[in-house]
Amino acid sequence: MNSEPRQIRLIMELRGEGVIDAAVLGAIERTAREEFVPPQFRDRAYDNTALPIGEGQTISQPLIVGLMTQALEVGPRHKVLEIGTGCGYQAAVLSKLCRRVYSIERHKSLLAETNKRLQRLGYHNITTIAGDGTRGWPEQAPFDRIIVTAAARDDVPQAFLDQLAPGGILVMPLGATTSDQHVWRIRKAADGAITRERLWPVRFVPLIKGTPDSKGRAT
Fold first, then answer.
1. For the domain bounded by 4-201, which CATH number is listed?
2. CA-wise closest residue to 3 among 47, 59, 54, 55
3. Could you count the other beta carbons within 10 Å of the beta carbon of residue 211?
C-alpha cells in the first residue's frame, strides 16, 4: 500500500496544528511510522493518534511527537537523552536532527524488538539501554537536550536536572493523573539557574521508578 498520500496529509495536519519548524516536519516526513507500529495497526500508521505497541505502552500521537520535538529546539551538534524508548519512533525522529540519541527503556522485551528494528532500518546514531529511566544515564551525561515520554507525578527528577548541560533544555510531561498532565519546558542557564514554562495538556503513561520484574512489578 502506498503510504505517501497519507503521510503528506499527516504533515499538513501537523502544520495546521502548530508544528511549524521545517526541520522537525522534515524529520517526521522522512521517518516511516508504519515501521514502528504492530502489523495489525499499519493501516492506521499515519492517523494522528496514539497506538498500542505492547507492554501497556503506546507510540505517541504524531502531533505530540512534533510539538515536543519542536519545543526541544534540537540542533545538529546536540547529544540528546530520551527517557522511554518504546518502539523507537521518537528516537528515530530525533536522530535526524541531532548528533546522537541516548535512550532508556524499562521493558527489556520491548527494547529487544526495538533494537532489532532500529538496526534493520539503519539508525546508527541511537544508543539504547534497558534500565530505570528516572535515574537518567549518568555515565553519558551531560546532555544538551533531554526528552521524557512518560509523566512524572510531582516534579522533575533531580537526576534529569543534574544531567542537563548548562544551556540545555528538558521537555517532559508532569501531572499526577492524565486529567491534569501538561508538558513543561525546563531551561538550564549557563550559571545553572532553572526556568520552567508550561506548554500544553497531554495524556502520557506514568514515569515509574525501577524496572519491571518477571511479573511486571517495579523493582
1. 3.40.50.150
2. 47
3. 16
Residue ranges per structural domain of the chain = 4-201
- pLDDT tens sequence across 42-73: 999 999 999 999 888 899 999 999 999 999 99
Q: What is the pLDDT of residues 132-175, one digit of tens each?
A: 999 999 999 999 999 999 999 989 999 999 999 999 999 999 99
CB 78 within 8 A of CB 145: yes
CA distance 158 to 81: 15
- How far is Cα of residue 67 from the mean position of the Cα atoms in its chain? 11
Inter-residue contact 64 to 44 (CB < 8 Å): no
Q: Which of 3, 60, 95, 109 is catalytic?
A: 60
The answer, as to whether pTM is greater than 0.90, is yes
Examine the residue annotation and report whether 95 is marked as an active-site residue of this protein.
Answer: no
User: What is the C-alpha separation between 97 and 78, in angstroms, rounded?
Assistant: 8
